[in-house]
């Protein structure tokens, strides 16, 4: 689903946005002028297609009808007003759509396995032993004789 958001951090800005929308101003124009979410002003508040469970915004948008505008609600450290721009029904990804994601996940999994095998081989080869006492003392600093202060 695709939705746009007007995000503001104060009650007065929320009231101003609501007043402009009630006055018939275009949602996207108000979002472009007022949204305070980093990176979203240039996009007129548009989030693009997101999964239904991404966050509270997408969950609210999923329960709204197409082209509807929500009332202002608390979100994060401010207020959000959202508009549903498009809905795409849930579906199974095609092989072509899922391929890059699967490839990346598989490569990451194989890399982790190889890393663990390599670490195990190093431990076996060099007989690694952990000296807990040395580790505890490794980062405690005792002042050098020249740094010690004396009070007279």
N-to-C span = 75 Å
**Number of structural domains:** 2
The CATH architecture of the largest domain can be named as: Roll
Q: Count helical runs.
A: 5
Which strand-content bin applies to the residues? 15-25%
Give the strand order of the largest sheet, numbering strands 1, 2, ... along the chain.
2-1-4-3
User: What average pLDDT do the residues reach?
Assistant: 87
* Helix proportion range: 40-55%
Q: Can you tell me the residue ranges where pLDDT is under 50 for at least 5 consecutive residues?
A: none
Structure description:
- The protein is of the alpha+beta class.
- The protein folds into two domains: 85 residues, Roll (Chitinase A, domain 3), CATH 3.10.50; 44 residues.
- The protein contains five helices and four strands.
- It has a four-stranded antiparallel beta sheet, sandwiched between helices.
- The radius of gyration is 28 Å and the shape is elongated.
- The mean pLDDT is 87.
